[in-house]
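for the writeup, i need someone to sanity check this before i put it in the appendix. the sequnce is what the collaborator sent (i think, or maybe the updated version? ugh). structure was predicted straight from it, no edits. if anything looks off just tell me and ill rerun, i have time this weekend
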Amino acid sequence: STLLYVVPSIAPNTENARDLVVEIRDLLSRRSNQQLVTYVSGETAMGLDYDNKIMHQIPKIILVSVTLTFLLLLVAFRSVLLPLKAIVLNTLVTVSSLGFLIYMFQNGHMPGTHPQALNVNTPILLFCILFGLSIDYEVIIVSRIRESYLRTGNNDESILDGFVATAGMINGGAAIMITVFGVFMFADIQIVQELGVGLAFAILIDALIVRTIVVPLSMKLLGRLNWWLPFSKSKSRDSLSRHKNI
C-alpha cells in the first residue's frame, strides 16, 4: 500500500479545498482497476462525506416529522385542515428563519463574524426544534378554541375565547425562549450561534405574527371547515353540552 499526502495551500474548510477533494476522487475513480483500490481521506474529505450523509438524510427526517405531526394533530383536533395549516405555517417560519441565518452569517452581516457557510447540522436541528416548539403553541391555542367550539358551536366566538385565554401564556413563554436563545449569539462556536439566533428569530415571528394574526385569521376564514373530518358523525351542540355535564 502507498500513502500519498496532498497538502493544499488553502484552508481545509473552504469551498476550493472541497472542490479539490472531488477532483482527486474523480481522477482516481477513472484510473482505478481491480488491482488498485484508492481512498481519499483527511479533514476536508471527512467533512465533505459527513455533509453529504446529512444532506441525504434530510428528506427522510422531514417526511417522518411531517407525517407524525399530521397524524397526532389529526387525532388531537379531530380535523384534517388544522394539521395541514399547522404544517404549512411551521414550514414558513422555518424557511424564514433559515433565510435570516443566511443573511446574517453566510452573507456576513452578523456583528463579529465573517461570511461563511452555515454549519450543515444547523438546518435540520433548527427544523426539528422549531417544529416541536411551534406545535406546542398550536396545541395550546387550538385546543382552547376547540373546547369553546364544542361548548358554544360558534366559530368566531370560540376563536376569540381561545385567543384571549392563551395570548398571555404564549407571549410570555415566547419572551423567555427568545431571551434564552438570544444569549447563544455570544458563544464562540458557530453552530451554537446559528441555532440561538435562528431559534430566537423564529419564535419572535411565530409568536408575534403567526399565532397572533395568521392562526386566528385563517380559522375565521375557514369557518366550520376547521372541524371537518371525513367519515365522522357530527354531534349537535346540545348532545355535546349534555355529554360535558355528565
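The CA atoms of residues 68 and 164 lie 29 Å apart. The first helix runs from residue 15 to 31.
thx in advance!!
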